Each structure stands twice: as C-alpha cells, then as structure tokens.
Amino acid sequence: MAAEIGLPISVYRPGRYPVCIITWQGSCPELPSIMLNSHSDVVTAEEVYWSHPPFSGEIDENGDLFGRGTQDTKSLSIQHLEAIRNLINNKVTLERTIHISIIPDEERGGSEGMKPFLKSQYFKRLNVGFALDEGLTSPTNTMFATYQDKRPWQLNMTFYGQGGHGSSIQTSTAVEKLQLLLDQVIHFRREQSQIMSSSKAYDFGSFNGDSNKCNSQQSECCGRVAVTNGASH
Ligand SMILES: [Zn+2]
C-alpha cells in the first residue's frame, strides 16, 4: 500500500521482531516529525467462537470484513495510509514529516520490538516531536480523539506503626494504617465505577467532567499515606 501511494518504507530490527516505518516527508523535514503508531500483532483467537475463520480476512455480502486484529489495529494503519493518500491526491503538502510506525509486539509489552527500537539510533534519526497511538474504531464517519483514558498509577509505600510485645494489643500499627489506605482505594474504585456506569457509551465529556473529583480523592488518599509517626516497625 505504501508503494502504491509512493511512500518509502523501512524495516528495522533492533530487537527480535521488525518495526515498520512508512515516511511521508514534509516540506520542512528539519522540524520535529509526527509519528502515527499502530501495531501489527494480534491476540489469539479461538476459531470455535468465530462465525468466519479468524485469520481469513473474509468479506461477507454486507461488506463486513472478519479477522482477528481488523480493529486492533489494522483499521488504524489503513486510516493513516488513507488519510495521507487523500492529502496527496488533494495536492496538500504538510510542513512536518509524518512517520507511520507499525510495531510488532504491542500486545506482549513491546520488549522485543518497540522498546529496543525507541533506544536505537534509527528512532532518534526520525526526530519525533509528537506521537498519536491507537484509539477507537468508529462505526460511523465520526472519529473520536481521546487522551489518557487509562494509565497505570504505581505507588511504592512504606507504613510505619507502633510495635510492641505480642502479649499486648498495640494501637496505631502499620497494618491499621495499611487498612486505612485500602479502604480509601476501595472507596475510590467504587466511585470510579459509578462514574463509568453513569456515562453513556462514547460520552467522554461527563467522564472528564468528574475528573476534579477524582483528583481530590487521589490527593486525599496520598495525604493519608504521607502521615507516618516515624516509630519503629
Ligand atoms: Zn491494540
């Protein structure tokens, strides 16, 4: 497809699996480039649950295409290429170079494809200033742009509490403080669950509208954790 549009394609293999980069050069190639990312790998498919063989790419009489990975994320790679094809056909030239990256191991965490590629000189030479990754496939002509819809939030915590002899029951122990935190986490989780279930499908507005509430919960949660009495244990 890249050749059809007249775009050069490079395949890099700094890790075990190949990373594919299709480049549309801009009129100011010295500017930081834009990367549009999608992935070529897919999760497994159990054929028994499929109406059509999952790796056949069959198209039925309605024009629906069946195949594991068509939405996650072959459709995205196609959208990127088609968008560029349209721009080229309409004689549009962008200032910035666009790189379409199709990476091999997103579903497995990227350690044998994207991760070594990011550390390589090949990636540095692309001079990427901004990147967009996979999002939602839309059944209509309305496309949704989302950001940070789900992110990991990892914390390391140490709890300090009052120690003492096993024959007595101490107060203000580390475990009690841990329990306080867990209560907060469960409370926060329930609240998030309510927010999600009260939002209509694709209604990202109301989800974002409650984000301040979420943040205050987070800082309250962290505030409690920060209070330690510095005793042994
Ligand atoms: Zn994906």
Automatic annotation (TrEMBL):
Domain of life of the organism encoding this protein: Eukaryota
GO molecular function: aminoacylase activity; metal ion binding
Active site per UniProt: 41, 106 (proton acceptor)
UniProtKB keywords: Hydrolase, Metal-binding, Zinc
Residue ranges that the Swiss-Prot or TrEMBL entry lists as coiled coil: none
SUPFAM superfamilies, per the entry: Zn-dependent exopeptidases (SSF53187)
Residues reported to bind Zn(2+) 1: 39, 72, 134
Keyword Hydrolase listed: yes
Cofactor: Zn(2+)
Textual note on the cofactor: Binds 2 Zn(2+) ions per subunit.
UniProt-listed InterPro entries: Aminoacylase-1_M20A, ArgE/DapE_CS, Peptidase_M20
Residues the record lists as binding Zn(2+) 2: 72, 107
Claim: Metal-binding is one of the keywords in the record: yes
Protein known as: Peptidase M20 dimerisation domain-containing protein
Organism: Leptidea sinapis
